[in-house]
């Protein structure tokens, strides 16, 4: 069986204070807070989702905010850098915006593209790249106009404990195409026009340690529920231990750990984030799955306030 994922569905990371998290990704980066719910496996903490106006696959960055948790260490067995893509010609806007909010950044280039690299308040490595491909976001917030807004993911850089094995997986199991090598990086591309570029760092880093400021997992797209079932069989037949299908309310999920020790998820595009609230109301209220609804009062009492708000520029 030969299969191809369209690309990244979402990336999930661990951070600290939830309001600081919302202030950065909504207030500074201008993304939409599309869903405010809880970690279904640990309802004492939020699960916050940010993306374009509809939280479409390929745009969704999600977070488990654990205030006071120990800091992690980015290293092998993790997504090392998460890339966001903006419209062609918008990079100068983002240089200026990061300066206005006192976010330090470095300019770098890779595979003929210019990147702005920076770190979020809790230690996550991020970068912004401009490309023509992919539809523009229709979301405008906090001084970020839609024609400059983040479209979604540009891709990710994987820090693998076994880079060659991870490269084989991307090509032979996930169906990405190897499109180039440059210095310490090998580049792969999927079929989508967003969330489609994956770089593997060839020289292994020291082992990563999970904690705030690190990526928990990267999720890949399955087009529908039938496709998802085929992926489950495909991954198992390829020799990887894969979980049963788990209902995450907004998508179904399966998980497996690849040989480079990175946790992979495959998630369905449907049903999306309007299954339990309207498009207009997305992200405003705390949404709970049916089995947690009876515990709403206790859950709300344990959560710190977190809401999207317009920030004042530092400069």
Topology, please?
Layout (H helix, E strand, L loop, with lengths): L7 E8 L2 H11 L3 E8 L2 E10 L8 E6 L12 E10 L3 H10 L4 E6 L2 E7 L5 E7 L20 E8 L3 H10 L4 E6 L2 E5 L7 E5 L12 E9 L2 H13 L8 E2 L3 E7 L5 E9 L24 H7 L13
Parallel strand pairs: 1-4, 5-8, 9-12, 13-16
Antiparallel strand pairs: 1-13, 2-3, 3-4, 5-9, 6-7, 7-8, 10-11, 11-12, 14-15, 15-16
Structure overview:
This protein is of the alpha+beta class and 315 residues long. The protein has a single domain (8-302), classed as 2,3-Dihydroxybiphenyl 1,2-Dioxygenase, domain 1 (Roll), CATH 3.10.180. Helix content is 16%, strand content 36%. The protein has 5 helices and 16 strands. It has helices at residues 18-28, 91-100, 163-172, 225-237, 296-302, and strands at 8-15, 32-39, 42-51, 60-65, 78-87, 105-110, 113-119, 125-131, 152-159, 177-182, 185-189, 197-201, 214-222, 246-247, 251-257, 263-271. The strands form 2 sheets. It has an 8-stranded mixed beta sheet with strand order 2-3-4-1-13-16-15-14. The N and C termini lie far apart (55 Å). 48% of the residues are buried. The mean pLDDT is 97.
């Amino acid at each position: 069986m030969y299969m191809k994922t369209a690309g990244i569905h979402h990336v999930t990371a661990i951070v600290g204070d939830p309001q600081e998290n919302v202030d950065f990704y909504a207030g500074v980066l201008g993304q939409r807070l599309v869903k405010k719910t809880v970690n279904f496996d640990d309802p004492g903490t939020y699960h916050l989702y940010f993306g374009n106006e509809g939280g479409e696959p390929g745009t969704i960055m999600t977070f488990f905010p654990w205030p006071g948790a120990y800091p992690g260490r980015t290293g092998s067995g993790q997504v090392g850098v998460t890339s966001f893509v903006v419209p062609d010609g918008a990079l100068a806007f983002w240089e200026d915006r990061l300066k206005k909010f006192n976010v330090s950044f470095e300019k770098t280039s890779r595979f003929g593209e210019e990147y702005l690299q920076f770190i979020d308040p809790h230690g996550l490595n991020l970068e912004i790249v401009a490309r023509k491909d992919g539809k523009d976001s229709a979301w405008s917030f906090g001084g970020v106009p839609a024609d400059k807004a983040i479209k979604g993911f540009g891709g990710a850089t994987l820090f693998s404990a076994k880079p060659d094995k991870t490269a084989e997986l991307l090509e032979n199991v996930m169906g990405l195409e190897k499109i180039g090598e440059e210095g310490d990086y090998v580049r792969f591309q999927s079929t989508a026009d967003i969330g489609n570029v994956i770089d593997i760092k060839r020289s292994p880093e020291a082992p990563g340690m999970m904690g705030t400021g690190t990526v928990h997992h990267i999720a890949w797209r399955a087009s529908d529920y039938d496709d998802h079932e085929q992926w489950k069989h495909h991954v198992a037949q390829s020799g990887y231990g894969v979980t049963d299908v788990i209902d995450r309310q907004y998508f179904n999920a399966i998980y497996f750990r690849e040989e480079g020790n990175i946790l992979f998820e495959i998630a369905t595009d449907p049903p999306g984030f309007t299954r339990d609230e309207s498009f207009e109301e997305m992200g405003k209220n705390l949404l709970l799955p049916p089995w947690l609804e009876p515990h709403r009062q206790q859950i709300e009492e344990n959560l710190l306030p977190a809401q999207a708000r317009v920030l004042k520029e530092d400069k």
